[in-house]
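Pair request: fold both.
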Amino acid sequence: MSDKWVALLRGVNVGGANKVPMAELRALAEGLGWTDVKSYIASGNLVFEANAGDLVGQLRSAMIAQMGVYVAVRVLPAQEILDAENACPWDVKGNLVHAFFCLEAPVLDETLRDTLITEDEELVIQGKRVWLFAPSGVARSKLMAKMERVLGVQATARNLNTVRKLAQMVR
């Protein structure tokens, strides 16, 4: 029996780099035997059903072979997206909060964090998930721009609106 999963691709369709048309990504996933494949916006969010296995390896290998695109991928069980939605520390507009889904457990550089964080920003670490509340906007946030250096690991970020939509898609 297959399970529901969410794939989060890091750094696709940003500034003209790593172009991944979502229709092609869905077709690629279906070619891997994955079913009920859906994408959400162009930033590399894929919801699908598949048997457990090396889903990251399968997707990355297929993307390299068929699209020539090499990016980090995080594949999460559907429950992890539901848990993320429920675990958000703030009940605010979704564009003010970003969840960082880390590839490994973060090793926080507290000195760098303290140098970059502003008075109104908050950072909360929950295992391999990190939340940033930036009420002045992420475009102005120095912390957002250097988050991977602060966390010491690769991560892919989604705003709370996207987390909520992905949670809705896996229900």
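--- second member of the pair ---
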Amino acid sequence: MTANNKFHLYVYEGDYGLPSLNVECTKCLLYMSMSKVPVQVKTLGNMKHCLLYSAPYFVHKNVSFKTYAETVLYLNTLNYNLDAQLTAKQKSEALALSYLVQSKLRATLEYVFWIDQRNFEEFTRVWYARALPLPFNIIQTKKFKENAVDLIDSLYHKDSTIEVIKDNLNVLATECLSSLSARLGTSNYFFGEEPTSLDVVIYSYLAPLLKLPFPSNSISTLVALWPNLVQFVSRIDAKYLPGLPKESKYIKNEEKMKTSDDEVSYIAISILTFSAMTLAFGFAVSKGFISSKLF
């Protein structure tokens, strides 16, 4: 396969046995593993990749896509189709279950990652600060948190307390997980012995709740109440995502994952951010990504 014909996928890095800490990136990675797409995966772990790409970002020949849905539609045209054997009725059911998962678990996951103050301060922000280079760790963390806040604000009345929101998300997650567990039963996958795109979506939302060591985990521990869903995640790990390290690359077990305003100098952060952005700009000009004639 020539360089121009190769499949390339840019994603946020994985950790704790996850292919990526980003749900959309996990969907892309798992779909390609299951459908045997010969893709070259690159992470947004350096300045160059962070400057040039978002994630997920899929490239093939002269086309590129920035979402999981667009990427799958394109792969289907190349006969990488996990749903080819499903009947029309099964495809309709898969669509309904996919909507159920995303409507009830997406907000839950966003809350656990970005809204729960303890999780954000002690885990999420710490992890991204170490996984991405400056200033992108600050920029992306701010962006993801704002998106999560916007989502929760769109779902709940402005006067809703954080406890009311959390309790409601618990109820929605419980309802969703109960339905999924009943539908899966003793089967290996949701439509029998072979995985489909529905399994990709469900895994991508369940796995972070099972694997990530959130300090505040009342919601995330819900998944463990349904053993067949836990086994479902483990089954996919073993067959399609083998060998992923379960230990964290960035946060060691013995570390105290806690920061406070007293421990962080925002003046120092501002200086470092400005310096890093200056370096990034200089790199972009030197490589011709930005024309110096504009100035």
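Observation on the second member. The first helix runs from residue 23 to 34.
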